[in-house]
Design brief:
The protein is an alpha/beta fold. It contains 14 helices and 25 strands. It has an 8-stranded mixed sheet with strand order 14-13-15-16-22-21-20-18, with helices on both faces. A 5-stranded mixed sheet has the order 3-2-1-4-5, sandwiched between helices.
């Protein structure tokens, strides 16, 4: 009643002008409807049956942490149980792992064996090899990825319904898992974790934190050690002492889940082969640290000069050889050569170049310094600027002979430099009694100031002693000779300590004998190992890797799930054995649809068609041509 009536308008029947657009739109709608139906090809077989083919690799942890109580026995028993549960349709392989992966029974080798025969072969292997845990670290990630690769390789030729990695381990927090974090885990390979646990929880771990640098072998040996207490410990009192020296015992408190660094008592005089121990826990495999005695370090020194001058009094080489005498700290081994070979340089740590040399030799010494060597250069008055500049790689260095003075003295000494720091005390810092009759002037550029440091100058002007960093090594240049006709340096009491201070600054100082970890040498267990170095007996200390002492267990199900690793659902596996034919057929359909995922490709096709349709719809249709008649 409120609307105005309007007459109906008659229009012509709509006619379809663009049949291609209509066809594309209808096809896109049909494809989308088909995609939501989630189709699959029933002709592609998927292995799901009452007795499917299964493959599994059993990984047994044999790292050092498995030495606790009866963990190894538990691991072997769990492996036997896994073998008993396998049937004739299950292919099984056995592998041990620590820092390395060792497959002791492959899938192909045991494919034709019955479960009873597999158990018998496994028992024979354990008894023959006298298998037991090693002293290596735990590389859990690499072992698991290696096992997954073996399963995937076997699945190429003969697909299996399930692929499984069974990991039998104590799952201690010190295990290396980097490979699991860096690589994507295959979705078809599932992991079954079987942890083993000690009856007595908790653990103290003792590890060397640092070895003290020592300028004198007579100094007391006091080390710093780290005591770590596992999170599941019910104790906190630890006692550290040198073995067989109860009077050196130190008691400390370390709360569960924490660590503490303490200073040890000095090494007893009788403890030539030092052994530090910690007591107060239930497990002894990681309670010892081996420390070999301090031994003089061999220092190979190659001197480029005239061999006839070795015994010529008054030559620089004569004073150098007498200054470099063996000490309890260092054992210099001096070799004099008129010409140096590349082979000799690779076997040398220090090169002393005297008088004059060619630019080719300078380039040779530059390469030696860049690789970490020490070069001590004493250019004579005949030495060229180019030859010295070649060693340091700086063409701006200009060398000339100083003239016009009766003698020069050292001034502006940098006692903050590590080489001169030992001379900083008031009684020994006076260098004014050393006179230099001849010396060279050296002009430096401002470009290499960061790598160049002047230790002393002549009367506060031209550099007298200079250090230049070259690659990983150093070059020390003395702008006056050591022989009496050039200076009084070799005759002073400061000459020998100055040389040894240079050696110490460049890394050739006396230190407590280094310790190695199991796996870094040929030794397979902690302890002392007697070797030879430069023809002399040398004692090495081999210790357990501190990572193995971190025995706090982690939950593998939580950690592996966080990394996207599918875990075994035992309840679901058991239910497969009791399925009816209809249920198996439905599971086959779901598995086929899940593997093929044809709906994704159909959606992509529909989107592609819609894109084509949009492009065609955007184009305007060509108007029909009309005929025009003319009046005659």
């Amino acid at each position: 009643m409120f609307l105005e009536q309007t007459p109906e308008k008659l229009t012509r029947r709509t006619r379809v002008d663009r049949w291609l657009l209509l066809a594309l739109r209808c096809l896109a709608l049909l494809l989308l409807a088909f995609a939501f139906g989630r189709p699959f090809l029933n002709t592609i077989p998927v292995a799901i049956a009452a007795n499917p083919l299964e493959r599994k690799i059993i990984l047994i942890d044999r790292s050092a942490s498995m030495k606790r109580e009866n963990l190894w026995e538990q691991a072997i028993e769990k492996a036997r149980e896994q073998l008993k549960e396998s049937n004739t349709t299950t292919e099984v392989a056995i592998a041990f792992f620590d820092n390395e992966f060792e497959e002791v029974a492959s899938l192909a080798a045991w494919a034709s064996l019955s479960p009873v025969a597999r158990n018998s072969a496994f028992n024979d292997f354990i008894s023959e090899r006298q298998a037991e845990p090693s002293w290596q670290t735990t590389n859990l990630g690499t072992a698991m990825t290696r096992a997954a690769d073996l399963l995937l390789a076997a699945d190429i030729d003969d697909p299996a319904m399930t692929m499984e990695v069974v990991v039998i381990s104590d799952f201690q927090s010190g295990a290396e898992q980097t490979a699991l974090q860096n690589e994507a885990w295959p979705d078809d390979v599932k992991v079954h974790c079987l942890p083993v646990t000690p009856e007595k929880s908790g653990n103290f771990s003792l590890a060397l934190a640092s070895t003290p640098p020592r300028s004198s072998i007579d100094e007391e040996e006091v080390y710093r050690v780290r005591i770590q207490n596992a999170s599941d410990s019910d104790f906190s009192t630890a006692t550290v002492a040198w073995k067989d020296a109860p009077d050196t015992a130190i008691e400390t408190t370390v709360a569960p889940g924490n660590s503490r660094i303490i200073r040890t008592p000095p090494r007893p005089a009788a403890a030539v082969r030092g052994l530090l121990t910690v007591t107060g826990d239930h497990h002894e495999f990681d309670n010892e640290v081996f420390l070999s005695p301090v031994q003089a370090r061999p220092l190979r020194i190659l001197v480029s000069g005239d061999t006839e001058l070795e015994e010529t009094a008054g030559s620089a080489l004569f004073y150098l050889k007498r200054a470099l005498q063996p000490t309890p700290n260092l054992e210099p081994i001096v070799t004099v050569r008129a010409q140096m070979t590349d082979k000799e340089l690779t076997e040398t740590e220090v090169v002393v170049i005297l008088d004059q040399w060619s630019t080719e030799v300078g380039n040779q010494l530059k390469q030696f310094a860049e690789s970490g060597g020490l070069v001590i250069a004493l250019p004579s008055s005949e030495a060229s600027s180019e030859a010295l500049a070649e060693i340091v790689g700086d063409d701006s260095w200009k060398l000339s002979e100083a003239e016009g003075r009766e003698f020069a003295l050292l001034g502006d000494l940098d006692f903050e430099h590590p080489v001169l720091e030992p001379f900083a005390r008031a009684r020994i810092r006076d260098f004014t009694k050393i006179r230099f009759w001849k010396h060279r002037n050296l002009v430096l550029s401002a470009e290499g100031e960061e790598e160049t440091r002047i230790l002393a100058t002549f009367d506060g002007e031209s550099p007298a002693i200079i250090e230049r960093r070259v690659g990983e090594g150093s070059v020390f240049a003395f702008l006056s000779g050591w022989e009496p006709r050039e200076s009084q340096l070799a005759l002073s009491s400061k000459f020998v300590p100055l040389l040894f201070s240079i050696f110490e600054h460049t890394g050739f100082s006396i230190r407590s004998a280094p310790t190695y970890l199991v796996g870094e040498t040929s030794s397979v267990e902690p302890g002392f190992k007697e070797t030879e170095r430069d023809g002399e007996p040398h004692l090495l200390a081999i210790n357990l890797n501190p990572r193995e002492g971190n025995t706090t267990p982690f939950d593998p199900n939580v950690v592996f799930s966080g990394l996207g690793i599918p875990l075994i659902d035992e309840a679901a596996n058991d239910s497969l054995k009791n399925l009816t034919e209809d249920q198996i057929e439905r599971l086959e359909s779901e598995a086929k649809e899940g593997k093929q995922k044809l709906w994704k490709w159909i959606v992509f096709a529909a989107l592609f068609i819609l894109v084509i349709e949009s492009i065609l719809a955007g184009r305007r249709p060509q108007p029909a041509r009309t005929l025009q008649s003319t009046a005659t």
